[in-house]
Amino acid sequence: MAAPEEAPGLVCFDLDGTLVDPLLGVRNCLRKTCAAFALAMPDEATIRAWIGFGMRESLATLPGLEDPARLEATLDFYWERYREDGVFEHELYPGVFHLLHRLKRQGHRIYIVSAKPSVFARRIAYQFDLNLIFDDIFGSTLKGRWQPKTGVLAGLADRGTIWPGGVFIGDRGVDMEAARDHGLEAIGVGWGYGSHQELMDAGAERIFDAVPDLDAWLRIRFPQAEVFDAFSRSE
Questions:
Q1: Residue 143's pLDDT is what?
Q2: CA 157/CA 177 separation, integer angstroms
Q3: Domain end: 54, 88, 122, which one?
């Protein structure tokens, strides 16, 4: 569905590695999980490579989790630790809050679109008051196999929530592929967990290595005037 000319702009953001850094929470939850199930703790490079992808599929690569029932028990334990501790061990990247506030004041439709289970994406957003800025927060289901980002976007496109011509901003190649699959401008960020090569290979149209640089480009891409609302809870 094409956006009418009078419609606001559409800007979708990935969560992990784009708005927030999840490494501390993921690492700590993995450490507790591996200790509880007598598993070898993956090294730092492996953990970083897992960020942005499904935890079930990632855990399944560890020796000792070949049995499906044991894998499910391990995954349940991990998510319980994540629910209790991990969601509170994220850091908002500097400058992100200011950038989002400005887009909100311009009246654009802005969404978080994450492959993370939506229950956790929302809890993370709430602790940084991002729920006061974003129009909605979308993710995958907690149970079941990992849903690629393009699958999450497909559901939103079917409902008319997103439309071609908007922008998708993320740090992994799967974000760029999902954006292109749905007619969105694929914008990569270099402060997350995907390399420049990964982003370019997946079709990134631009890559920004610092939040102020992304903000400057968004000001040009969406030049609408800002409207300040003294009664808005996000101000």
A1: 67
A2: 15
A3: 88
pLDDT digits (tens, 9 = 90+) for 16-28: 999 999 999 999 9
Check whether residue 145 and residue 97 sit in a common domain: yes
Indicate if the pLDDT at residue 113 is higher than 70. yes
Q: Are 55 and 171 found together in one domain?
A: no
* β-pairing verdict for 91-92 and 109-117: unpaired
Q: Are residues 114 and 155 in the same domain?
A: yes
* Global model pTM greater than 0.85: yes
User: Is 9 within 8 Å of 106 (Cβ atoms)?
Assistant: yes
Give how many domains the chain has, as a whole number: 2
**pLDDT tens readout for residues 135-185:** 999 988 776 666 788 888 998 999 999 999 999 999 999 999 999 999 999
The span from the CA of 189 to the CA of 218, in Å, is: 13
Cβ–Cβ under 8 Å, residues 107 and 10: no
Catalytic (active site) residue 14: yes
SS3 readout for 53-114: CCHHHHHCCCCCCCCHHHHHHHHHHHHHHHHHCHHHCCEECCCHHHHHHHHHHCCCEEEEEE
Domain residue limits at 64: 23-88
| pLDDT > 70? residue 41 | yes
Q: Which two tokens stand for residue 55?
A: 């935890």
14, 171, 175, 181: which one is catalytic? 14
| Closest C-alpha to 52, from 165, 163, 177 | 177
- Per DSSP, 18 falls in state T
